[in-house]
Amino acid sequence: MNFLKVNCLAIFMGLFLFTACNENDDGVPPIEPVSYQVQLGFKASLSEIVPMGIEVRLRNLNSDLEYTGTTDETGLAEFAAIVPGSYEVKANLQLTQSEFKELFGFTTQNELTNFNAVHTGVVINHNQAAKIELTLESARIGGLVFKQIYYVGSDRNKAAMFRDMFFEIYNNSDEEIYLDGICFAQLFGSTSTKGDSKQFDWSQSIGQTKGDRSNTGYVYADHVYKIPGSGTDYPLAPGASVVIAGTGINHKAPLVVDGKEYKVEDPSLTVDLSDAAFEINLRQYRIDRGMKPYSTDIDNPDVPNMDIVYNLSNKDLILDVMGRDSFILFRLTEDASNWDRLPNPEETVVDEDTKRYLQIPVEIIVDGVEINRPVKPFPRRLPQAIDGGYTYAPKGIFSSQSLIRRVATTLDGRKILQDTNNSSEDFITIDLPLPGGWVE
Amino acid sequence: MSVRILFTSILWTLGVTVAAWGQSVKGIVKDDNGKGLPGVMVEIRGLQKITFTNEQGGFELKVPEQLQEFSLLFHLLGKKDVQLDFQRDSVPATVLVVLLDNDLYLDELVVTEQRETNGNSSATVFEEQAINLLQAQSLAEVMTLLPGKRIEQPEMFRVQTLSLRTANPDRNNSFGVSFLIDDIPLSQNENMQLYRPHTKGFNPVNQRRPTNDPAGGIDLRTIPVGNITKVEVNAGITDARYGDATTGLVRIEREAGKAPYKLRMTMRGGSYSFSLTKGYKLSKRSQLNASLDYLHAAQDPRDMLTQYKRVTGNLLWTVRNRKNRLRNTVSASVSTNLDGEKEEPNSPGRNTAKEKNHSFRFSNRLHWSPKKVLDRLSFNTGFSFGIQQTRRTSFVNNGGNVVALGMETGMYEATYTPVAYTSVREVDGKPLSAHSRLEGDKSFWTGKIRHRINAGIEINFSDNLGEGRKVSSENLDVQLAVGNGVGERSYAFKDRVPASWRWALYLQDNMIIPLGQKELETKLGFRYDRMNGYVSMSPRLNLGMKIHKNWHWRGGVGYFTKAPSLVHMYNGNLYYDFLLADHRNNYYARALVYTLVRDGDVTDLKPSKSWKTEMGLDFKKKGYSLSLTGYYSKRYDGFEKKSLYEQVNIPKLQFEPVEPTRPPLYEQTGEEKVLIKYTRMTNAHFSHDYGAEVLVSTPKLQEINTSFTLSGAYWVTETSSTLPHIINSNDPLSEELKAFHKRAKNLSKELNLRFTVVHHIPEVGLVFTLIAEQFLIKSNKNYFDSPYPYAYLDRNLVYHELSEEERANEKYAHLWIQKVKVTDTHAPLVYHNFHIRASKQMSNGIQLSFYANNFLNYRPTYRDNENKEKRLNEAISFGGQLTITL
Known about the structure:
Domain TonB-dependent receptor-like beta-barrel (chain B): 309-644
Oligomer: heterodimer
Strand content of chain A: 25-35%
Low-confidence stretches of chain A: 1-27
Distance between the termini of chain A: 23 Å
Protein name (chain B): TonB-dependent receptor
Low-confidence stretches of chain B: 1-20
Domain TonB-dependent receptor plug (chain B): 120-248
Radius of gyration of chain B: 30 Å
Radius of gyration of chain A: 28 Å
Shape of chain A: elongated
Shape of chain B: elongated
Largest interface: A-B, 53 and 64 residues
Membrane topology (chain B): Multi-pass membrane protein
Number of helices of chain B: 8
Strand order of the largest sheet of chain A: 3-2-5-6-7-1-4
Number of helices of chain A: 5
Largest sheet of chain A: 7 strands, mixed
Strand content of chain B: over 45%
Structural class of chain B: mainly beta
Distance between the termini of chain B: 60 Å
GO cellular component, one term (chain B): cell outer membrane
């Protein structure tokens, strides 16, 4: 399919190049020319796709001599007669989002994607190889995305209730990304179901300083957890993911106390999270603030704990089972206490009972997913640009249902997840969560 | 020292006693058929001088020489009391008295609340007919008739306690009301049915169906009215013989005597009750009364948890000797609720609630009227025992909570609850109380001053032999898991709660002092109490004087104390359990806990106290009466929980993983500071109450067969505490942790009036009552003197005082009090409520009654400060009663 499309493009470009060659035939070469081949390829992460019909230019570094060729269906551009000399070999490709999607089969967040391949000082003569391999490089394509969000929990009587919640972050890019400093935030907003779906006017918040931009330029979080590390501790390879659990243990397994085994009634409804990359534990956070640790705060020593950036009330990673949360990922590069904490704009007075929400700039959001429900929806918490739609688990609370992102394509064994910034399109539901797994 | 003084004074008074019993009054008591009535009690009012009529209805009573005028009271169960006033020099040779049946055919019927006529107090009295026509199921409904109270259907699935003379009822007020049934105190001091008292305070185990409120006073629902002949409520200055009450006194009287079978069936809303009474004459001087009472209350018939069922059985046996000098009354009562294990409607099989409450009471009263030395010597003993079990189960699915069971300070490996299980909260109490009183009465004269001395000794014993609260890892209440506030351990009342003794001596002299043409009635009493290691001396003084023809002035002042109950003092140690680690993976589960123990019992709790003073004016003429009372009382040292913060160090551990199959090794690398919060019962609550009460009544106006009563009360209550109000900083990232404010003050006012019209046609035995309530003022203001904190605690738990200037600084804005805590609510309108009641007695012994509360279904609405619609008055409710007398 892709191959055919590229072919058509090549035929069109070929016609254009044919006229250019004719012009070249007019001159009489002073030295015997040589033939030359440029083998063009996309960068490793896209190497399955053949760059076809792409203009390759050879520019003589000592004169204004320039040759132009076009790659064929194998990515090869052939030059029949080149005056020997020192050359710059160069190819460019600029793709719009739709051209990108057409060519690679998945979407990118960038308006335009530029591929460049350049090699300077290539000596072309009879003694040198008559072929060069050139790679079309680009800036990183894709980034970190939510791969899976399991917010409904499992049966409150027969399984693990809130305890087995988790989310999964996936490196949807073609480069390694360090997770150190990546934050997960639960967003706060109006839970009005009056139907007018009006989000709070955060510009009315007591203490607001962002004026007109307070609604469009910022989101407001009640809980923020950060992946620890000094910057290069937690690399994540392209196509790899991490599971971040509330409690990183095997929730299916029994608890053994003095030889007695206690387990949930139906372990099949819950999950094994003992392989989670990180878990959330509030023990130290509370002690540091003069508070008693919570009663259930299981710590798996094998699973590193997340840093707690902001915690208003939740005793663990507790995602709203009713779906009144939205979630974002962002990278924290400064101290969050520099950011404003603002009360719900409906609060007319701020006192000791007033909850305050951390103000996060929209431009640093890496990925965001709006959770909502189709009937009596809550006002949106995320800007349309971050998530143009919304998603939810239709079976509802404690149903074990999980949200997982669609696979857009697989390139060289690397799954590329669909990221159209519209979670209605990008996510599907699965009846049992699959931490780190894939829908067959 | 003070004991010696007291005894000396008794001896002194005995030394000057002048006993002079002179002329006899003879007479005969008959019924309306002219038949002599035996066993009628004849009493010289104001003296403890009593005799009974013989088989023919005849009586003879010696009247002291010094008594120039006196009143005789004739009383027989089932008959209307008759009081006759005599001048010594015009007593007829034979007094003829006719006692009429106290039924609706009686011409003069007392069916509303009355002012106590005997003495100087401001007590309110409900006679048998008033209770009867109310169609009450328990004492709770009777108490709604007190001046100033609202007539409402009591929520029978909740504890109903009684507060007096307050616009802002609280536990300290209701706990300070003492109840006496047949002169034996009804004790609540040994009730310990509290769960997690350190954390939950006085909140009951079953929040939705609290059948117990140990620190809130007697539950009125438990007292049936079927066999009650009189209830007297006195919020004023009570006699020295009454102690252990700071708010007031409720005296309930029952009586044995020959009476026919009486079956009474009452329906109120979703509740119904039966009561069956019968009085037997066992011999000439011996009577037995038996009563059985069943109540089935259901607030919401669909909700099992709101049901309340109780059965009460009573036996009352009176016997007197041939010469009427010795009288003995034995009473026994058994009460039980029939509420079994109930399931929560929304979680069948998972969550259940159970409340068991059996009680047994026994009392004996012996009165002896010796020929010499004393007019009367009484010896009362009372004993009560209860079996109380509160149990609540709920399904828990927490994945295994850490359970700390360590009893001493230190670090250890804790255990776990099952992953998902049925948890149990249970409190097992066996309250035991005993009471004994020995007292004597003597009248004498010193010169022209008439004395009546009442002196005695009273001993009270309280203990609880229950299994108490049990904590086990298998069925642990998840609230007790490590980290949920203060931990709890098993606490067996029988082993851990010592018995508490209280004793008191009292002496009162009721004097009538001639002042020229007038007489000053003076009741001067002293009471010496020894409670919980504290001694209190309570003076009481009541004065009364006829100031003009029909006008009578009275005033009094007194000091009152109320001992803390067992549940105020004994709650067990405080266990602070800190989770150091809960490490679990696929191979092991190991929890490390550090437990810190603090003493939680407060054995040095002082009694709460009150100073009360009141003044009143009474008018009486030809059945018209007016009574006006103003009062001021200051209650202080009330029981309240105090929050204390302590910075403690808990071990800081460093963990070293070994291999995945074994828990990490650990070593202590230091200590971490943690803030713990204590709550300790203390004497801090105080209140000022003042106000006025009025009661106006007319006799039955024969022309229209109607009588009118107006009663009302204006109450003002100001409460606060000497403790600080501590709030948390609302900014999780701020430097400050907690802010200290001066406690809010609460000012409440209430003014209610009630107008009662009783239309009574004795010829057909019909009584029709219309009650109009007027609610004029109801306001509650809760306010802080300043929104600014005077101190704060920072994240390092260092306490910082704030200077006056600093307090208002914007940078502490997150520590200010600005909202919610300041409330000023009041009903913005004057509104009414109308109730009707009707009773018809038929000649065949059947009496039918009907009532409708708020019969116009008038429910005005208003918008409160937050613009929420509020509805006043309860919705219309009906009920009825059928009484069959055989």
